[in-house]
Amino acid sequence: MSRVQHYRKTLVTIGAVIAAGLGAAALALSTAGANAEEPSGGGDFDAQIIGGDPAAEGQFPWIVALADASDPSFNYCGGQLVEQDVVLTAAHCTEGSDPADVVIRHGGTDITRTEVYEVAEIVVADGYDGATMANDWALVKLAEPIAGAATVPLADADTKDWGTLTVAGWGTTETGSGSQDLLHVDVPYVTDDECAGAYGGEFDAASMICAGDLEHGGVDSCQGDSGGPLVSADGVLVGVVSWGHGCAEAGKPGVYANVGLLHGDITAALAAL
Ligand code: ARG
Fold first, then answer.
1. Domain named Peptidase S1: which ranges (predicted)?
2. Catalytic hit among 2, 179, 221, 226
């Protein structure tokens, strides 16, 4: 999303949080889908790609950030190279943006030392629904390929029982702002049944997958990590950071676009680029 939209969304959500604090909109917030993704303030909010550690150089060699073309120091979402000239990210990260509004940052864990790349085209998933966050993925084609860059392999099936997954990003930490250094954290796979138990009808089993420590919370992605990678132990991209109720709250796992499930749609869009 554009910087302005990002801020607008944050303001709207802060309004919702204040209302929830007054008790008035608690139910609305917990069922609000896309708007329920910001830290709610209702739980133990200790964000830090929550509970994470700095990534080693080369650990996520294909990771990128989306940044504002008019201020490339403002990175607002994550993503990953699936080809040397194509980034897979979240649809809600590109919503309302022209290619000229967005640049891609790649080439290191310290965001200030990454290179800036121009964008030629943005393709949002056909079935993307900004109200429900269904099919929250998009492809961003670069003006030029990044020669020599690594790409991440996509899960080609909805394997379900993934065990421990890892999520990475430059998003919100416990200090409430983004991290200059790339962080990562392990998050247990959460079954569809458990996720439906946590989110009811907000969880769309046809396009989403969940991960987090249901019982304790404390580990999660957060604001600014959207679009970034959820990977399996063998380095396959299983999910794309999408939304959650707050960040790292017990009983409220992170929700991701389900790459294994959406593999056919994503590869078809890649072939059509
Ligand atoms: N929508 C957020 C973003 O734009 C990501 C939220 C992820 N939340 C979570 N609890 N895992 O960066």
1. 49-273
2. 226
